[in-house]
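Entry 14. Ran structure prediction on the chain below.
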Amino acid sequence: DKGIISDEEHQTGRRKLELDMEAQGMAAFNRDPIFPPVGAGTKENPIEVPSGLEERVVGYECPEAHQLMWFNLT
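Output, structure tokens:
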């Protein structure tokens, strides 16, 4: 029959892996929060995240607006 396929039947790649593992009661990806060491994540002591690209996305919390600000660093 040519009915509408389910979400599980339509998925591929990482999303399919995630759904298959969830069906087995396991988690494909760690969603636990990351707690940096005390004093890390400041202008004087930034947390550097490696990038496989020629540019990286940088984010910080604006102290006045208390919202995340994002920009590309090349």
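Strands lie at 56-62, 67-73. Will compare against last week's run tomorrow.
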